[in-house]
Specification:
By secondary structure, this protein is of the alpha/beta class. The chain folds into two domains: 28-146 and 349-377, Nucleotidyltransferase, domain 5 (2-Layer Sandwich); 157-342 and 387-395, Nucleotidyltransferase, domain 5 (2-Layer Sandwich). 42% of the residues lie in helices and 16% in strands. The chain has helices spanning 7-14, 61-67, 72-94, 113-130, 139-145, 147-150, 189-199, 213-221, 246-263, 274-302, 323-336, 345-348, 352-365, 389-395, and strands spanning 30-35, 40-47, 52-59, 103-109, 134-138, 157-162, 167-174, 177-183, 312-316, 339-341, 386-387. The strands form two sheets. The chain has a six-stranded mixed β-sheet with strand order 10-9-6-7-8-11, sandwiched between helices. α5 (139-145) packs across α13 and α7 packs across α8 (213-221). The longest helix has 29 residues, at 274-302. It is globular, with a radius of gyration of 22 Å. The chain binds 5'-O-[(R)-(carboxyoxy)(hydroxy)phosphoryl]adenosine and zinc ion (ZN). The site of 5'-O-[(R)-(carboxyoxy)(hydroxy)phosphoryl]adenosine has 20 residues, from α7 and α8.
């Protein structure tokens, strides 16, 4: 999308050396990225090389942990209170002035409407004030491509994105070219872990009071027996790559209720078997993710979708920082001959850096860059790429058995 009247864009795209005089990132265009799609207010200034010149992140997690989940108007208020300062900090730390930026990239989809609105409104005012191009960003595309900022990863590659709001498998074929192989049918794995942690009142556990649900379950599972409670891996009879966690959560909740009755304690009291429930929960989530991913790899192989010299699985999103889940996926990639890449935890969760990087990728290819005057709308629901989940299901690929002996 290139606006013919946007002279400023033409100049920037034609002259890659527009900022040669800028010392810290010579000969490199600079992008400011802004993220407000959920509960993190993030901003970062990136050079075209991928160098992070300055960043700032305000996390609302602690507040939402206290209220037992994200309340959208509260998230909106907190974004409003912080966005100006966060962007200012990222700019100051980078030593870059607004005038030196080549573009501003901001998450506009998918996410919480009230949260997306704060980032978009701020960004549109900013680009108009400083006469800068605007690059609207798809949050999941940004998660998927972050790995390319850290190391060379050629298209196409398979990507598993697992967070508090999403669960999907896709083939990344280009900066704006994705094939969706599978998605969440109900809740996302991070949401399940957060809800199980809340139902177990892990916030009262001395080691978990400041951790999110996924982190708390990972920590407690280390000292748990994953075999003591057996939860069935979801969707065993459905040969596709979609995910479902609601049934599993229901099963876990019923187990917790039964244990509370056995131990004669009220809901809200820490059970003596929390470590074992955490271990079984984590194992079943890992096993479900691994099985769907295994089928996606076999589907890609059967259809020649991973043509790069080194076929690769990239795993990202908040849940991807879980080491046990990574080990489960490593068993699958080893069995199928894929390379497994997981960005460090800091780049798996929401931040301004991944949005700025997506802006850099788009700027390099001249894709989706808008003049400052164009009105952009946010989209709370926005699927990733071309949906081929029906074809995947129709292929009905059966999985060979793989021993999931995941070291703790
Ligand atoms: O990507 P993210 O920061 O935000 C979005 O949901 O978009 O992911 C947050 C989610 C939360 O649900 C949290 O419980 C989960 O990621 N999470 C983890 C771990 N760390 C964060 N889940 C499992 N293990 C972890 N270590
Ligand atoms: Zn995210």
């Amino acid at each position: 999308m290139f606006h013919p009247k946007a002279n400023i864009l033409l100049r920037l795209l034609q002259c890659r050396h527009a900022l040669c005089s800028f010392g810290k990132a010579s000969c490199s265009r600079l992008v400011l990225g802004i993220e407000t799609s959920c509960d993190d207010t993030g901003a970062a200034v990136l050079a075209e090389t991928g160098a992070i010149l300055g960043e700032s992140l305000h996390s609302q997690k602690e507040i939402h942990l206290r209220t037992g989940g994200i309340i959208p108007p509260v998230a909106q208020r907190l974004h409003r209170e912080n966005i100006e300062r966060v962007v200012q900090e990222a700019l100051e730390r980078s030593g870059v002035t607004p005038g030196q930026l080549s573009a501003v990239a901001t998450t506009v989809k998918p996410g919480l409407a009230l949260s997306l609105g704060v980032g978009l409104e701020f960004s549109q005012r900013f680009v108009r004030r400083h006469d800068k191009p605007f690059i609207p960003i798809h949050h999941m595309e940004a998660h998927a491509l972050t790995v390319r900022m850290l190391q060379p990863v050629a298209f196409p590659f398979l990507v598993l994105l697992v967070s508090g709001g999403h669960s999907l498998l896709a083939v990344a074929r280009g900066v704006d070219d994705f094939l969706l192989l599978g998605h969440a049918l109900d809740e996302a794995p991070g949401d399940t872990l957060d809800k199980v942690a809340r139902r177990l009142s892990l916030i009262k556990h001395p080691q978990c009071s400041t951790l999110n649900g996924g982190q708390a379950i990972e920590l407690l599972a280390k000292d748990g027996d994953r075999m003591r409670f057996r939860f069935r891996t979801p969707m065993g009879q459905t040969p596709d790559c979609c995910f479902s966690f609601a049934g599993l959560r229901n099963h876990i909740t019923m187990t917790i209720v039964k244990k509370e009755a056995e131990e004669g304690v009220e809901q809200g009291t820490l059970l003596t078997c929390v470590n074992d429930i955490a271990a079984a929960t984590q194992h079943t989530v890992a096993s479900h993710l691994a099985k769907r991913t295994h089928r996606a790899i076999l589907f890609c192989k059967a259809n020649g979708l991973l043509t790069s010299g080194s076929p690769t699985l990239v795993v990202s999103g908040g849940v991807a920082s879980n080491q046990y889940i990574r080990k489960a996926l490593a068993i699958i990639t080893e069995a199928t001959g894929l390379r497994l890449l997981c960005p460090p935890a800091k780049f798996c969760t929401d931040n301004g850096v991944m949005i700025a990087w997506n802006g850099v990728e788009r700027l390099r290819e001249g894709k989706g860059i808008l003049p400052p005057s164009v009105d952009v709308c946010y989209e709370p629901k926005a699927p990733l790429g071309v949906d081929i989940t029906a074809e995947v299901k129709a292929a009905a690929i059966r999985l060979p058995s793989v021993r999931m002996k995941i070291p703790n």
